[in-house]
Amino acid sequence: MSNILTLAYLVPLFPLIGFLVNGLLRKQLNKPLIGIIGSGSILASFIVSLLIFLQVKNGASDVITYFNFISVGDFSIPFAFQIDQLSSIFLLIITGVGFLIHVYSTSYMHEEKTEHFGRYFAYLNLFVFSMLLLVMGANYVIMFIGWEGVGLCSYLLIGFWFKKPEYNKAANKAFIMNRIGDLAFLIAIFWIIGKVNSVGYTEVLAAAQATGDAQVFSAFDLTGITILLFIGATGKSAQIPLYTWLPDAMAGPTPVSALIHAATMVTAGIYMIARSNILYTLSPLTLDIITWIGLATALLAATIALKQNDIKKVLAYSTVSQLGYMFLALGTGAYVAAVFHVMTHAFFKALLFLGSGSVIHAMGGEQDIRKMGGLSKHMKVTNFTFLIGCLAIAGIPGLSGFFSKDEILANAFIKSPVIYGIGLFTALLTAFYMFRLYATTFLGKFRGTHEQEHHLHESPAAITIPLIVLAVLSVVGGYVGIPAFIKEGAHSLNSFLSPVVAESNTILGEHHISHSTEWMLAGISTVLIIIVVIFAWTKFSKRPDTEEATGFGKVLADKWYVDELYEKIIVNPLEKLGGFFNRVMETSVIDGLVNGVGRLVNYGSRQLRLIQSGQVGNYVLLMVLSMLLIFAIQFFLRK
Amino acid sequence: MIPVLLIFIPLLAGLAAFFFRNEKAARSWALLSTILVLGVSLAGLTICNQLSSLEHQSSWMSLLGSSFSVKLDGMGQLLCLLTAIGFPVILLSTWHTNFARAGSFFGLLLLSQAGLMGVFLSMDALLFYFFWELALIPVYFLCSQWGGPRRIPVTFKFFIYTFIGSLLMLIGIIYVYSQTSNASFAIADFYKATLSATDQDWLFLVFFLAFAIKMPIFPFHTWQPDAYEESPTTVTMILSGIMVKMGVFGLLRWLLPLVPYASYQRGDNVMTLAIAGMIYASLIAIRQNDLKRLVAYSSIAHIGLMGAAVFSINEMAIQGVMIQMFSHGINIIGMWIVVEIIERNYGTRKISELGGLAQKSTSDGDIIPGSCFCQHRFTTHERVYW
Lengths: 639, 386
Fold this sequence. Notes:
The complex is a heterodimer.
Chain A: H1 10-24, H2 31-57, E1 62-72, E2 75-83, H3 85-108, H4 114-136, H5 140-158, H6 165-196, H7 201-209, H8 219-236, H9 245-248, H10 254-263, H11 268-275, H12 277-281, H13 284-305, H14 311-331, H15 335-362, H16 380-394, H17 400-415, H18 417-442, H19 450-455, H20 461-476, H21 492-508, H22 515-542, H23 551-557, H24 562-611, H25 616-638
Helix pairs in contact in A: 1-2, 1-4, 2-3, 2-4, 3-4, 3-10, 3-15, 3-20, 4-5, 5-6, 5-10, 6-8, 8-11, 8-13, 10-15, 11-15, 13-14, 13-18, 14-15, 14-17, 14-18, 15-16, 15-17, 15-20, 15-21, 16-18, 16-20, 17-18, 18-22
Chain B: H1 2-17, H2 23-45, H3 51-54, E1 55-61, E2 66-71, H4 74-93, H5 102-121, H6 125-146, H7 151-179, H8 187-192, H9 197-214, H10 223-230, H11 233-258, H12 260-286, H13 291-311, H14 315-346, H15 357-360, H16 362-381
Helix pairs in contact in B: 1-2, 1-5, 2-4, 2-5, 4-5, 4-11, 4-14, 5-6, 5-11, 6-7, 6-11, 7-9, 7-10, 9-11, 9-12, 10-11, 10-13, 11-13, 11-14, 12-13, 13-14, 14-16
């Protein structure tokens, strides 16, 4: 079998072609054709990714250089792809989940005009292309191109329904907040260039480990670079303090939320850190910062999710919270656990979002869970798959979420029991709000209008089949990472990814806790989670929480007023400053000076003009006086 | 041969255009000439790229030690290409705008193209100065004759401002000329002129002011938003897309090699000024309600970036500036085309009166984010300046 890795360029090429065809010919093509081109291109990528994955599984990994992208003096950036264990897993997630979501979209977006339908699939394909570039790039610059590309597509898709001004605002917010993170990412890249004179992962990561005379990075460099990269990640992966764009991003069509704002793009930050894991391992301070930011984000977002009533907003905050978990894992040095959670989260969160889309579809666009209820009778498949998603995210044993979350919590315990405690508490909150969501939506009595009730229906196959596939994955996805305390050596993801994190693991050392402690931890969390699930289930299926929140609940419902705070301390002062510059500095100060010079010349000329009186007597007098003056000067100065 | 053609085709075509009475004919004539220039420019890049065809020297004012010496080198190539691409695009995009006295309008336009080409090609300081003015003066007439309601005071300010800069530069050129060993204006002799540190110091200021006003760098920018707003869009495109590049180009071709010591000494000050200007102009841009002024201020910010990059005196940064000059030229012309389309279709440039454009006409809707994004993209991309 020839080396399939050299065909890696095909993976991003298919979506790019799909984007060009759908984008340019969207007025000529018809909807089925657009759908086939859009989904088919991703399917083709998925097949190639699968072949690549199988090859990588047999031990192949390579950096494939295609051409020289930028070359200045002795510095050059090749356009190269790095195909290894880490990127091949992400390839599978992106193209696999991406394909399902494309199929789903063909039905979900069916009511759009053909032209907009084409535009939608063009953007979606462009997104997949950028995302693939992001994970396949063999250096930080290619990653950055993908990073910007996904940001752009996210912007375009959030604002897809651009007729509503608030949707455009949400799109702008997402784009601008991401740009703040991107700036830090860029500075980190420049810093790396300044030190290593290269941006390739291989070179940079090797340079980071050099010691003694060959040392390239000082401790300060490493800390600075890693913190800047992490700030970049907080933008893209919605962590404190740059998380507020993600809930607003729910303005986009629901499949977009599933693909971009749950399964793939928002995990880019985790990928970036996992990719540069050596840098992070060598800067413990940054690891601590990541741990605490991740933990704080997980907790904060979970508390907000408790009181949200928009089905997509709950899922959005839940995503922020789960991303916090992943950063917690990264912070504790458990890079594999983070990637594991990325994978399982991609399955169950995409499932939940697509399920919510199915619900919204059935409800005729209604997103408020207070107006739903009792949907389980009308939508069997959606109900069942959504329930599986909720069980998986809550961490019920046997489903995928359990394995990844348990691994993260076990690593947190090794770091500190306090972190473990907060992490566990957040997990309980997660179980609570997910089952509040489930019970309010699917159980109890229907609370919408009669007309809505009449229209309730199960969604067509293009929607339910992706749901079923994702539900199956949400169940079985965890079995690639069976913890050692259950069966020694069954954590196949760990052994698969070990080449990527080998050096980090050597430096961090193995901190194992005994199997009995692990059994105990898993037991405690399982029991508590099941209690919370049952509590939420019974509480909300009987008496759904439909009143307006008051007191502390209102603070949570209003998201701790973080948006208002940002508005006050950042947006308003900048606007005021801009206004001041515009009104005062420009017109009065700078232009005032410029015009002042002109007026001064004018004034001076007017005074000089008076001398030019035209009277010969005056001229003669002046002439005589001047001559006398010259003689006097000559006389005194010559001496 | 190529550089001579690049200058003389627009020059002669421009002079001829003045005699056209029919608007349509004048327009087509101008387009024909610019397309010809584009062809020549592309030929210079591809089939006729041996040194002999890219250079030309003939005597001009030999008594003064100045010769008509032009050369299409790497640095000039990119900007000549930008000029060559820019003009036909600009003409086509404003094809349906009607101008009174079209013969003169297009004649002046072509003359300014000749001036621009000359600036990018000159290898002789006096020649450079001549073309610098040749590019400036037609624009002055274009603004003052065909501009908006406030055109007279605005153009006057623009003229005084840039003219002061030009005169300062002339003083500088003459001084350096007096310091050359063989009394010559040739660029090679200029580079070799021995200049003391104090000489370099004031020469730096003189040249820098000339180029900074043209670019413009904060705080010498106040002529620009007004001029962009009041000029006919065709002229605004030329001003912002191509003409401001004269300033950056001047820094690279003349200022840095001529007074390297002073540039190195004062580089940090200029960078501070440029970066402060970037932030300042961006903040003002946020507050603009008029699309033209918005683009104008964003352009000041981008130029500030280029200025900062030039004075970082770093190979990577200077390459970045070269690329960004080109991409900024293309992007900003794109932005103006969008503004032009919006103004023509909806009769206003006030953002507060616009809204929902993307739904009214999808093609516009795609271009605006498209060009905004490009501009964004290239800016960040080239921020490699350390």
